[in-house]
Fold these 4 entries.
Entry 1:
Amino acid sequence: RIAERENLEIVRIFQESKSAKNPGREKFNEMIEFIKQGKADAILCWKIDRLARNPLDDGLIKWLQQNEVIKQIKTFDRDYNADDNILLAGIEFSMANQYIRDLSKNVKRGNRAKLQKGEWPNMAPLGYLNENKKIIVDKTRARYIQKAFDLYATVGYSITEIADILFKDGFSSRKGYKYHRSKIHRMLTNPFYYGVMRVNGESYVGNHEPIISKDLFDKVQSALTGKHHGKKEKHFFAMRGFLKCEQCGCLLTPARKKGIVYFYCTNGKGSCDEHKKYLREKDLEKSLAEKFNDLKFDPQIVEIAYRAAKEKTNHTKSYLETAKINLANRLQAHKTKQQRLLDGYCEGNVAGEVYEAKSRELKKEEIDLKTQLAAIERKIQSKLSTLEQTKKAFLQAFSAEKEFLEAEDGRKRKLLEILLWNATFQNQELAKVSYKMPFQLLADEPEKGDFLKLLRGWDLNPRPGGYEPPELPDCSTPLYIDFSSAVNPCHS
């Protein structure tokens, strides 16, 4: 409208979409070059701060005006001519620059305040969603995040292989593309997934629900840095490292021959004849799966114990409340240490490099304490969480045989890591199985079908001889088991 009203000749229109905060805008530089070539000698823009909000572009515009290369800058409310006092234009350019600097500081200060409250000020990372100014778990994608961490922690998969596996399982971008290995790597190194937000080298405890545990995250970091990843396996064998020779104690090593996997004794001590005998992987899996029957408890007994234990949740809550108080006290003592360190530094009693090193150490310890405290608080909010996990451990043992036989190799290894220390073989037969706790307790219990006898070993409050067990619940409905975790059933 201004051009039409004042009969201005518009020789070219430049449309700039980038912010004027930083120098290096392509369209702006193109416009300046156009003017320097003498193809135009004036600029029409909405406001002068559209041209520059940084000192470099500001100085270039003012220099071209001073040398009358640019004879006029026209905005909707004012004209800036080359022969006028350029002080006003300089002031307005400086005000625009100061505004953008203040805006940046205010945004950073606001983001820092949100982070300190446990809120995430940016777009939610993969596996989470932004909803009503909160970060919630994306139930569809979270299971793929969990699987990625689980796979890499097994040491048997590279990041590229994990990307391929996840894509085959349906994990893709919104447009249906496979995520590149760099995206998977960033995901595996992001502490956000266990509840800690890291921004500009600083860590903050988040309010969002974690997808993985800190132990799993630490295990993956060790693998990524090569501490526990070792040499990449050419072939992945689910049972590698779990099978031993009963005669000499050496590990059984796998080999693939004509498409069939065999295990045999390494004979590391040079005195064992078992290394001459080869065991087929499928036969080993079948023998091991049948041995998992030793872990089975009647689901009816599990249900009765579960119902009885519900009455003891107040005791569990009391324990967690005590743990919470202890952690809070440790955190307060930690803050006192930080304050004393700062006081010593301000008074000149602590050298700068010593202060920096110790401050980083104390900050890391503080984050760990806050993470533990947040975990305790989540458990308190869900009073039956430990009890539910204990029930899962019993039911997991009940279904271990079927699950192991039907699972893919990666899942087979995960089950073995949960259940098994090792298994020994002799004369091509399974000799002995050693389970991890609490599953060894389940295997050692001979009276799995007698509820009263079972109580004598697990209950600190024996019933009198005339005690009658409650009526068995109806267990005709199929039980759907979740294998996501296993805990010590003695705990509840």
Entry 2:
Amino acid sequence: MPPSPVVSREEWLTARKRLLEREKEFTKRRDELSAERRSLPWVRIDKPYEFDSERGKLSLGDLFGSKSQLMVKHFMFGPEWSTGCIGCSLEIDHYDGVIPHLAQRDVAFVVVSRAPLEKLLAFKKRMGWHIDWVSSFGSDFNYDFHVSFTPEEVARGTGCYNYVTRPIIDELSGRSVFYKDEDGAIYHTYSSFGRGGEDMLGIYRLLDIVPKGRDEGPGGNLSHWVKHHDRYER
């Protein structure tokens, strides 16, 4: 870590106030971007999807429960995988305490993966999570929302991810948002992928304000340091 200059408290305060103005501007710009995000047009979802859950077979509409808004975490866990993605696991570690608060704001939260339900539930138990996790195995859901890829795409090495054609593997991460109106019609309102998920990771917000920052290595990839939370050396 390159050393920062050491200055007097008065000089530090001058520099801090200068940075504070930029931070305030960033906050205002983020508010504007959030409003623009919410004003995106919607796409009606008429295609039926079916999910395996602890309560049996569920439709996309069932995932809302009593809520009108649904947030889906696309968790990387393929049918042949023996364990869940480390990065997705880090994201889920942030959510258990938030889900009750989301419910008070009319938001249901569900994790979706293609692995069979028994694998998902076993991993959920190991990690100590309380999230709702369903399997989309046998459904087109993951493919239609561009987080799972066909054998042909994997063999080719490219597919549509984050709205462009790029290198892919069989499973990738993301999150999608849906709305259900009073008549039961469902609309897709938003999806984000790649670094679009960083705002969900509170640990990044914390690391960004300490001297060493994220310190993720030359590739800037969380896989260089993140492990499943029960696999860190004590």
Entry 3:
Amino acid sequence: MRALFLGFGNVGRAVAEILAHRERYPGLTGADITVVGIVTGSHGAKIDPDGIDLAQALSEFHSSGGFPPALRAGGDIGYDAVVEMTPLDRRRRGEPAITHVREALARGRHAVSANKGPLAWAFRDLSRLARDRGLRFLYETAVMDGVPVFNLVRHGLRGATVHRVEGILNSTTNAILSALERGESFEEALARAQRDGVAEADPGDDLEGWDAAVKVSALANVLMDGDLPPESVAREGIVGVDAARVRETMARGARLKLVGEAWRDADAVQGRVVLREVPMTDPFALVEDTSNILRLVTDLAGRIVITEERPDIRVTAYGVISDLLTLIADAPQRPM
């Protein structure tokens, strides 16, 4: 599988690190994944049709802060799949990631996206284009890192219909709420999350519930055949929450959690992000710090709860690699 990377931020570099040392991971023994191009938005590009030495590329990137300016367009390289790992731009409604995926599919290449924007704003169009071209559009990393949420429903819940999804989906807000329970102020909790690399330098999308809303859209569109853009998700954040409110909630035998959910309402799918008092008897109350949890409510398989405990960047990177391995497994049956 010859891959072209678009973006080389934390996720892209973690993917490269794993692939550069794949001998450390028994499950990747013999994994035929070759990276032939790494293209970034502002840090240049590295292209080698014979395959990039990823260990060398990582060293070069870390030592010089990037690669030389791009000299060739992605269409000039022989590759099988585009791996879209650029940052989400919520204000541009998922661009340029959506265009990257669409152009890859139009060129007859598979697309793997770690960016949730294409699912939130353009899933129906992109999945239809992939299907019409006999290609795959995969996105396991888009929600809950590398936890196989989409693969679970695709392969493990055949014949079942998902009626509702709900989850604690944003690590930053959950870490801050957990810190408030320990007595820290909101400002202290946010600063800690930023020092730990959990929160962005500009954490507005997390604190205002936008990140969770985009994830709710992605889940609703993929798992429930919704057409729900993030702007249509009713949204609440954690701005203004203080330790006193958290302690009052705990005194009532509950914990304060930011919960994203989507459900079927007649012929439409609705969604919201809400700050909720979760009783201690609910599995959601056990999820602390950067951990995430998702509940699927189905007609035939009942209620399924998936928990992700304190993920690191390797978990996110694994989701990308698992999608590439899926493409390899499918290769004999699919045109390239």
Entry 4:
Amino acid sequence: MWAASDDGSKLERLDPSTYQVLATIDAPGEEGVVGGGYVWVADSDPDSGIYNGTIFKVDPQTSQIVATLHTPETYLDVYMDYDEASGSIWLKGDNDHWLTALNTTTGVSRKIPLAPYSALTDFSDDPPTSGLGSIWVRTADDTVSRIDPQSGAITARFPATGKGGWPVVGFGSLWVANFDDDSVWRVQVPS
């Protein structure tokens, strides 16, 4: 199990049965994902929450940083997910109408506009999530958008109720939590 240290200055590897710290890695940040056989950590200032454009690639076998990747974009309170199909990390900043796709093999990143986009009114923006060959992002209080990872184009929009909630994909469906009315919607979507 992997988690940020209490102060956000280190990445810790924990034994999931005892919660004992097995390793401490000098990779500051509070946002990370697992994918492609590695742990990826977005370097964010623990005090300000500002992501500085650096992603650490951590080998889970050795608990060592084996590479450092960079994006030109910086974000306040970055959110991210790893898309196994494209081998890319997808990043989104809080109240920001851009996505960044970082190819973990080439190290090349590209910035993709989300349009139309409207910041959520009561909750911080939601992380991007991957599944069914697409990237999914809540692009308004009442909308989840499906994005083609190759072109970056929004290919479909799905309804939600207001004020946010994380979209996830699984079992051939989009699942949308709606904080405003305490509901979860399931929408079956083609792969």
